[in-house]
Design brief:
By secondary structure, the protein is mostly helical. The chain contains 7 helices and no strands. Helix 3 packs across helix 6.
Length: 151
């Protein structure tokens, strides 16, 4: 197997047959046990990464909620009906285990080569989600009867 000067496998020089065999081997939890390394299924993530996953999940689903409401409003649904599309905490928590599992797969890679791209994407999504939330709140206030706004 070709290796780089620092002793790592040179994946750019691997044949497709070798890559396929490696993919199969690395996806086998028995290999992790035999080598004494954590598998993707069972590896724990740090508290910092867990907090990041929660923040990303919350921001992503705030964005999904806001986009869903906006689409519903554009389609002609009344605000109170469109608001039914907002994800609540229980719904977000129902996808948290799968989100964590995916994060355990991707965080190590995202921490290296694609870290800057991920941070930019995260910042853009967070700012957009906050702006959409502000817009929704302003819109909700403008829909209240004038007597309610004065109080």
């Amino acid at each position: 197997m070709p290796v780089t000067t620092d002793g790592r496998i040179d994946v750019t020089r691997l044949r497709e047959k070798t890559k396929s065999a490696l993919r199969l081997a690395l996806s086998d939890p028995a290999l992790s046990v035999a080598l004494g390394t954590p598998s993707l299924e069972t590896s724990a993530i740090s508290e910092e990464d867990a907090a990041l996953v929660k923040t990303i999940t919350d921001s992503a689903f705030m964005g999904v909620s806001a986009a869903s409401v906006l689409i519903a409003r554009r389609a002609g649904f009344r605000p109170e009906h469109a608001a039914l599309l907002v994800w609540d905490a229980d719904e977000k928590n129902s996808v948290a285990p799968l989100t964590g599992k995916i994060a355990r797969k991707w965080l190590p890679m995202l921490d290296g080569k694609y870290r800057d791209e991920c941070l930019l994407g995260y910042q853009v999504i967070t700012i957009l989600a906050m702006k959409i939330q502000l817009m929704r709140e302003a819109s909700a206030q403008s829909l209240q009867p004038k007597a309610e706004q004065a109080s």
